[in-house]
Specification:
The complex is a heterodimer of chains A (384) and B (297). Chain A is built from 14 helices and 14 strands. Chain A has 384 residues and is an alpha/beta fold. Chain A folds into two domains: 11-158 and 298-359, Response regulator (Rossmann fold); 161-288, Response regulator (Rossmann fold). In chain A, the strands form three sheets. In chain A, strands 7-6-8-9-10-13-14 form a seven-stranded mixed beta sheet, sandwiched between helices. A five-stranded parallel beta sheet of chain A has the order 2-1-3-4-5. In chain A, strands 11-12 form a two-stranded antiparallel ribbon. In chain A, α3 packs parallel to α4 and α13 packs across α14. The longest helix of chain A is centred in the N-terminal third of the chain and has 30 residues, at 2-31. The radius of gyration of chain A is 22 Å and the shape is elongated. By secondary structure, chain B is mainly α. Chain B has one domain (2-224). Chain B contains eleven helices and four strands. Chain B has helices at 2-32, 39-56, 62-89, 97-119, 144-166, 168-178, 180-185, 190-216, 223-238, 243-263, 269-283; strands spanning 124-125, 134-137, 140-143, 218-219. In chain B, β2 and β3 (140-143) form a beta hairpin. The radius of gyration of chain B is 19 Å and the shape is globular. The termini of chain B are far apart. The model of chain B has no long low-confidence stretch (mean pLDDT 89). Classes of the chains: A alpha/beta (384), B mainly alpha (297). The A-B interface holds A 50-53, 55-56, 186, 212-215, 217-224, 226-227, 229-230, 243, 246-247, 250, 253-256, 271, 274-277, 279-280 and B 3, 6-7, 9-11, 13-14, 116, 120-123, 125, 129, 132, 134, 141, 143, 212, 216-218, 220, 222-223, 226, 257-259, 261-262, 265-267, 269-270.
Amino acid sequence: MKVLKKIGLGLSVFSLLAVTACGSAGTSGGGSSQGGSTASEILIGVQSPTTGSEAKMGQDINNAIQLAADEINDKGGINGKKIKLVFADDACDPQTATAAANKLVSQGVVAVVGGYCSGATLPASGVYHNAGIPMVVTAANSAKIPAQGYKEIFLVNGTTVHQGEVAADHMVAKLGGKRIAIVHDNSAFAKDLAEITKKAVEKKGGQVVAFEAVNPEEKDFTSLLTKLKNAKPDATYWTAYYAAGGLLIKQFKQLGVPGVIGVGDGANDKTLIDIAGKQAAEGTFVTTSPTPEFLPEAKSFNESYTKKFSQAPGPYSALSYDGMRLLADAISRAGSTDKAAIVKALKETKAFKTFGGNVSFKEDGTLEKSNFIVIQVKDGKFSK
Amino acid sequence: MDIFIQQLTNALVVGSFYSLIALGYSMVYGIIKLLNFAHGDLYMIGAFAGFSALSLLSGDAGVLGIAMAFLAAMIVAGLFGIGIERVAYRPLLNSSRLTILITAVGVSLVLENGVMLTYGPSFKVFPSQLPITGFQIAGATVTYSQIGLILLSVLLMVALQWFVHRTLYGKAMRSIAIDQTATSLMGIPVHRIIGITFFIGSALAAAAGMMAGLYYGQINFMMGFIVGLKAFTAAVIGGIGSIPGAMLGGLVLGLLETFGTIYIGGEWKDVFAFAILILILTLKPTGLLGEKVTERM
C-alpha cells in the first residue's frame, strides 16, 4: 500500500511538472508575436495524416513541403532566416488533429501548411484561428472550412463547391446522364461534396436516383451496389477516398451495375487502379485538382521530387509544394514573423504563380479561380 | 427476386468470413473461458502472411500458388496463435479473467502496430486477385469466386467438426472444456491441447483473412479490428463456446447486415451488428445454440 502511495505521489508531482512545463512553453509560444522562432530560424508547422488510412497522402504532402522548404533554404531562406519545419500527425481524425494543432501552437510555429482530410482540418483550423496563426490548406477542400469565416485560413485547393459543379457538368452535360447515383462515406469532405454535387446535378436537369452512405472502413459494397443496380443509374459518383473507392469500382464492375463510375479528388491516387484492378478501373473518371503529371510547368518539380524521395509525387504533392512556396512568399513580403502581418500578406497575395494557375484569394480565403479538371483511367493509367 | 438472390450470395460470402473467425473465438472461449480479443488480428496476420507468400511468387500465381499461399498463411497465423498463447495467456491462466482480457487487448495492439511497422501504414494491394467472371441466375450475377469461397469455408468448417468429434485430440479438447483439472489428472497434456486449439482457431481466422484479401484485393493493418468485433458478435449470437453456434452466428450476422443495408442504409451496417449483440445479451445470453451452463467462476 505504502509503495503504491509513493508511486502515486511521484506520478502526481511528475504530471504537475509536465503541466507547468507545457504551460510555460505555451505562453512563451503564444505570447510573443515572434513565436518560437529564433533569430536565424522560422518555425513552420506541417499538419498532415502520417498514420491511419490516409497515411500515404500525408507522406506525399510532407515530402513536397520538405522539398519546397529545402529549396527555399538553399537559396538563402526567407529574409535571411532558414525555415524549420515541425511535423504534426493528424491521423485524418478530428480528435488527433485538435491535439496536433495544439501541439504546433504550443511549439510556437508562426504559420501552418498542410491539411489533407477536411474532417481533421475543420477542428484544427479553429485552434489556429484562436491562436491567430495563419494556415495555408493545401488539400482539404470541404466548403465548410471557408464557411467558418476564419480570416487566418487560406485554401490553395478549389473547394467542394467548385468540384461538385465540375462533376455534375461532366456527368449530366458531357456524358448526357439523366439518372445519377452518389455514394459517400459520411466523412466531412465526402458528405459535403456529395450534397453539393446532388444540388448541382439537379440544377442541371439530372435526377439523383440514389444518394447513399457507407461506413468509412467499408470493404463490402455488394449489398449497396445491388440496390444501385436496381436503380439503373447512368453515372455513379464516389466522393470519398481511394482505398474504399477502389473496392467500390471493382465490385461495381463485378456486379454489372449499368452506367459509368467516377470518383472525386479524394480517390485520385494510383492505388485506386491497383485496388480496383486495371480491367475494372478502365474508363473511370476522376474530378481532381491539377496533379503534377498533367502540368507541363511541373516537370522540374516532378524530377527533383522523384530524385529526392525515389518515388513519384502523389496527387497532392504539387499543391503542397505550391502552398509552402506561397506561404514563404507571404512571410517575405510581410517582412517579419508576426502572425498578423503574415495573415495580411497572405490576403494580399496577387497572382502568385503556381502549377495550377495564378493564385489570388477571395474574401473568404478560397481561390478566386477554380482549377479542377476531369481525367480518366485509360490502359490502367490516369490520362487527360 | 434477382435482388434477393444477389443479396443472398453477398450475405453468404460475408457470413462465411464471419463464421470462420467466430469459430476461433468460440473454441478458445469454450476451452479456457478467455475472450481472445486479439483474434481479429490473427485474421489480419493471415492476410499479410498470404500477401507475403504471394509476393514471393513472381508473376501470376495460379491455383497452385494460391493454394500454397493459403497453407502458408494458415500455418504462420497458427504459429502466431500458439506463440501468443504461450507468451501472453499461459502465465496468466490462473489469474482473474479480467487480467487476461486486458492482456488480450494488449496483444491486439502489439500485432496491429507490429504489422504497421513492418509493412507500412498504407493499404496493400493483394498480388493475386480472384477472377470476376460468373453467371446469371434470374438476373443476379454470381461469380465463381463467390461460390468457391463459400464452398471452401463450408469445407473448413466440416473438417473442424470432424476433428473435434472424431479424433482423440478433439475428444481431449472437449474434455478440457468440461473440466481442466480433472482432464490433467487423466494424464492428458492440457497445455499442448490448448496450444492446438489456438493453432486451429488462428489458422481458420487466417483462412478467412486470406480469402478476404483475394476477394476484396486490399488489405491493411487495421482490417482485423472491426471484423474481430463482428466475429465476436457472431459467436455470441450463436452461443459462445459452441462450434455450430459460431457457424450459424456468422451466417445470421451476414444476412442481417446485408438485408439491413438494403432496407435501411449502408451507414447503419455496424449498428445492426452491435444492436443484435445487445439484444441477444439481454434476451438470450446463451445465444441461439448455447446451452445452459452452470457458473464456474
